[in-house]
Amino acid sequence: MAVTPPGDDTGDDTGDDTGDVAVGTGLTVTEGSHPSATLAVQNAINVPFTRVKFTASSDGDVVVDSVTVERTGLGADNPFSGIVLLDENGNRVNQISKTLNSSHQAVITDDFIVKAGQTREMTVAGDMVASLSAYAGQIAFLSVVAVNTSADLNATLPLTGAGNTINATVSIGGVTLSDGSLDPGTSRTKEVGTTAYVFTSLKATANSNEDVLWKSISFNQSGSAAIGDLANVMVEDEKGVKYNPIISSDGKYYTVNFGNGIKLEKGKNFEVSIRGDVNDGSGRTVDFDIYRYEDVVFKGLSNGYDIKPSATEVAVSADDGDFHATSPRYDAYQVEISKGTLTVSKSSTIGAENLPSDGDSVNLGAFEFEAKGEPVSFTSWAMSITTTDNDSGGENGKITNVTVYDSTGKVVAGPLDFGGGAAGSTAPFTMTFTDSITVPVGKNIYKVKGDLNSSWETNDTIALSFTPSTAISSVTGGVTGNTITPSPSSSVSGPTMTIKAGSLTISPAGTFASTTLIANSTNVELGRFTLSASDSGADVAVTVGRVVQRTNASGATVANLTFRDGNSPTSPALNTGSNRVNPASSPTETLVFNFDNAFAIPKGTSKTIGLFGDLSSTATSTSFYQYILHNGGTAVDWTVKTVADANAVTESATDVAGGGVTIQTSGGYKVAAENVIPVNAEQWTYAGQKGVTMNILKWSATSEDLAITDLRLQLDVTGSSTRAEYEAVELWDGGLMVTRKIDPFDVNGITDITLNVCSDTGTTPTAGCFVIPKNGSKLMTIKADLAPIAVSQNGVGGELLGIDYDGGGAGNGKGKQKARGLQSGVSVESETHSDVTGTGVMAFRGIPKVRKCEEASGNCAALSGSAVNGEQPLIRFAVKAEGGDVKINRVTFIVSTSNITAMGTQLPAFKLYSFTNGNYMTNATGNAAIYFGGAGDYTKNYDSSGRVIVRAIVDNTSNYTAGQYKITAGAEHVFELRGIFTDDGTAGGSFTTTLLGEGGEVRPEVLALTGTSKLLQASVALIDAEQRCGGPNDATEAGEVAACGYAKKPGTAASSTAFIWSDISSEATSAGNTNTINTGDWMNGYKVPGLSSTGISHTKAY
């Protein structure tokens, strides 16, 4: 018989407790829907043979006491390890599989209930042994030959189902059990009250034969704990799904069906745990074992048989958390249920405080009582009170109504009175509470309070203490009734309380620094003060405050002085209406503030109050105001009293001058270049791009918020761009566009922009205006839409573009830069009277963007592995054409070696390969296009550091026009430098290959940005320093031809032009133009995005 735990009826009628229900008088036993004949394979369990229906009469439930099964047919008994009866849910009725006796019979004595008028269909099944080879081909039957019940039996027996054939060749799946990750891993002791504790966790791993379903598990609770000692026991899988177990009548088996089953794919694992609450049972144990492997049921999804799992077994050792060859097959770690505990400690909820003499219900201390396992009750608590007498005058301070409160404020003990010790004595006095106190499970705070009489004097002290193990007595567990000894056995002391009179210290706040304010401002802070009751024994309150105003101007220019609880203009006002103060014209005056209500400062705390007022429009610049607490060395008097009893308190005022206020009639502002990369490091972009950042200006304001109203900008004079190259200009405040102007510049390259005056403080951008915050700064970004480079368009390839703040230089911007003060309303001119320039951008029809290939896969995957003999990739990089088509004429590399013999005269055959086009860009070697080395002089192929210089120039082959490799707009081409190497036998070497940028990051010396010799781009012959020996800036060296090549300056790679490319802008000037290496639209690698002066390197081991 089996029952469900209280409140968790599964509704399956399997073993519901009979209780006092009526007993039925009849039971009918008939054949059920027998399973089809099948194979009984080795190591399978729960193989079905016969199904039987049990029907109870309608007059009551019927208990079936036993069922006798007989093996019949030509098969032997030995193939069966045991016989089981399965209920309608597939659960085993008999927890212990029954073996066949000498009469070939097995008697299943585990009873079960059939509800009145209902039918239950049970299955007689067999568990098969691990090896059936000796019995293969036999056919066995399992027949029900007897049913034992106290009711009248109506049955025609025997009932026989399918004859199954013994089989030794079918290989079914296997499952291996092991302890799970959540298993406690050791025997533990848990208190009554422990919740959701994991008693046992098991992991199942499917073998490689077939996927399986985990159908059910049955834990054997072999410990001494009873059903009622545990609560909320459930099985939970690793996905968090919870299952309520069916509990056997003796409380020893907890069985769970996993619904449709938990699927384990071949080789995969899954974990389930059994957990619950410890509700009772001190001194007893809980131990959730697996008694038999058959108690953990799996079903193969390919062959359909229930599978008995296995495990790695060890020698038997008590409570070892291991698997064994005998039952219990898994001996889980047990839990010993301990009695409840009570631990006491000092609580931080009440710290050391100053207490007033004659104070009522003052804090004396707080203690934390933590009960574990069960509520804990006690009826005696002895508490010691230790006091000190500051002046040893023998006064006897008394404490009455000493009371203990719980966290809800409820009185749990007391009140008691402490009468004080002998005169001058500091020996502890003990009070004993005899109230019954029950401490709930968990942490509980108990506060002790009392009333002080007037005999206590300043700096007397009071402290509570007790030793829990001896001071708290008659302690019992609320569930178990066991006697409990509280811990610790050492003294627990509360905080030391000190008697203090009421006090208040007033001082200027150090957080208020001298500042500048604008005339005609309202509700501005003029001073700030700290009111400290940190050394007070009582809460105090201020009703009247006084400060001294000092000024070098008329005091009457300040009005409506108001103290506020805080330092914000919106902080609550302490004196309003007629209590506001308006000073006279005297340069020094004591001002009296009558507060609307008493302003309280709790003891042990401090508060900051700000002094606010209005400044007259007649206030003059450099007027100065300061508010202090002394007048001629004499402190002003504040009216202060204690909150509880209204006793007068004599405050102390610090004779320290705080920050002062200087008046200005208006603010001022400046502008400077913001050093932000890349704006202040010349960048390249492509023509026709929108919203290109041209400059970033940093604006700074003093004394008040200032709104820019007038702004003049001019074209940058470093270059020689024209107005037509700019289609629009935008001003940005962070992520907000303030304004936009189309066709912005006049014929002189000037644009004047007018902005609105906004009321914001500059913290939130507003379209149409730009506000600089008081005594702060803000960045303005200048952007532009650039004209395209195309036929009938105004863009110019290689043009340096820039937009500057015109402070009075070429654009004569002085007087054209203005802002309006938001406080003063005054319009002021900028204090910056010089131009503020950025470094601009250089625009091309299209630009190349270079990067090293470092992706995980694809054409631009990073190179990996070591070099071997033969052709080797040395570096892989990509070039993308942004904004328009580009052409490449030349790229240059340096190849250096480490721990490798110098390459000498036998240089590797280097080639540059295009992954994108699938061919070589440079097929020639030697002193042709790839080297430019002098004939017969191999030393000219090295730089001064002995590194090989590899100059890759696009060949005039069938693939490419001489010197031109084209990349269409938006496309990215991937390239690889390759070399053919022969191992010199030196181990541990490497090659480092660097794709070079332009050393020193300089433009070609033949180019000029401005003037009559303006030349923005040029032909390859002029751009390439190695072809320019007879050019305009170099004299032809003796014995060299015009195309002198590398012989010009041998041994220095820096003298070479590393990267040569074209934006093909020559084709934009006329529809009939064609770009060649001789057209004037080529450029070197200066500022090519992604290609720095130090280049891009890759090292490869050899």
TrEMBL record:
Biased composition (Acidic residues): 9-19
Lineage: Bacteria, Candidatus Ryaniibacteriota
Highest rank taxon of the organism: Bacteria
Protein name: Uncharacterized protein
Region annotation Disordered: where it falls in the sequence: 1-25, 564-585
